[in-house]
Design a protein that fits this description.
A five-stranded mixed beta barrel has the order 5-9-8-6-10, surrounded by four helices. The chain has a single domain, classed as Rossmann fold, CATH 3.40.50.1580. By secondary structure, it is of the alpha/beta class. The protein is built from eight helices and ten strands. Helix 1 crosses helix 3 and helix 4 packs across helix 8. The chain is globular and about 55 Å long.
Length: 285
């Protein structure tokens, strides 16, 4: 008979294993080496972890209870390092509901981060662009989201805006980072779908009528879990392709990965610009 471990216990055991793996860096759970910021890196965006200094890598399969991703572009590694003086934990790859996991399993990394002392979560994803006036490769700050899975019933989903799901403080920091770095950014609502198939043109038209500007198969369960854990959340989409019906050509995951590679430098500068504003106070001027 299989024993089911409660999610909180599983997250605690995983956190203990991560602390043991990092050893002396974790002499105190509230010490200066404890990561206060975690980043989830979406499809094709995992290279950002390489920009962290003094990094330590832990494969997901070496962390108790950590689910394993199966989608190309998701390496399956937890990376601890520093952005300047700021300790950061980065998840290089995510787990999706459509891979056969429960929503509780999809949210497992968030519960782990909270038990590691993380207070701020930056969620990134590759998304389809619904706005035909925008460009593939644009970065979009997510100001709201809608659940287009219809798991809760047949009614049109409401758009969730602002606090506590979308931190206005972090959005302002991202706007400032974009402005000072000369990085054009869009802002809009992200629609979550079940996947793994792409949406139909009719579904995209419906999402647009509901106010969505981008669409993808992740992020919303993570936002919800982070809010439940009391974390401050910033979400950013890399618009890696046009959604179905915007252009007369088929969609492919290869295009998603190729666009992620093309804009990875711009993406890294934006995220680093946010992290630079989150540096420990004693080390800022």
């Amino acid at each position: 008979m299989t024993t089911v471990i409660p999610a909180t216990q599983a997250a605690q055991e995983a956190a203990a294993a991560v602390r043991a793996r990092l050893g002396p860096l974790w002499a105190s759970p509230s010490g200066p080496d404890t990561p206060r910021v975690a980043i989830i890196l979406g499809s094709g965006l995992g290279d950002f972890a390489d920009t962290l200094s003094d990094s330590r890598l832990i494969p997901y399969d070496e962390i108790p209870h950590y689910p394993q991703p199966a989608v190309p572009g998701h390496a399956g590694q937890l990376v601890y390092g520093r952005a300047g003086d700021l300790p950061v934990m980065a998840a290089r790859g995510r787990i999706h509901y459509y891979e056969g996991h429960s929503l509780e399993t999809v949210a497992f990394p968030i519960h782990l981060f909270a038990r590691l002392g993380v207070q701020t979560l930056i969620i990134t994803n590759a998304a389809g662009c619904i706005n035909a006036d925008w460009n593939v490769g644009d970065l979009m700050l997510i100001t709201g989201h809608l659940d287009y899975t219809f798991l809760g019933g047949p009614d049109d989903p409401a758009t969730v805006l602002g606090e506590p799901h979308h931190s206005q403080r972090l959005l302002d920091l991202a706007r400032r980072a974009a402005r000072e770095g000369g990085i054009p950014v869009r802002e809009g609502v992200y629609a979550w779908t079940l996947g793994p198939s792409y949406e139909t043109p009719a579904e995209i038209r419906h999402m647009r009528s509901l106010g969505a500007a981008a669409v993808g198969m992740s992020t919303v369960p993570e936002i919800r879990a982070a809010t439940d854990e009391g974390l401050e959340v910033l979400a950013i989409s890399c618009l890696t392709n046009y959604a179905a019906g915007i252009q007369d050509r088929p969609l492919s995951h290869d295009e998603v990965l190729e666009t992620g590679q093309r804009v990875k430098g711009t993406f890294a500068r934006l995220v680093r610009g946010v992290l630079d504003q989150l540096q420990p106070k004693e080390n800022t001027v």
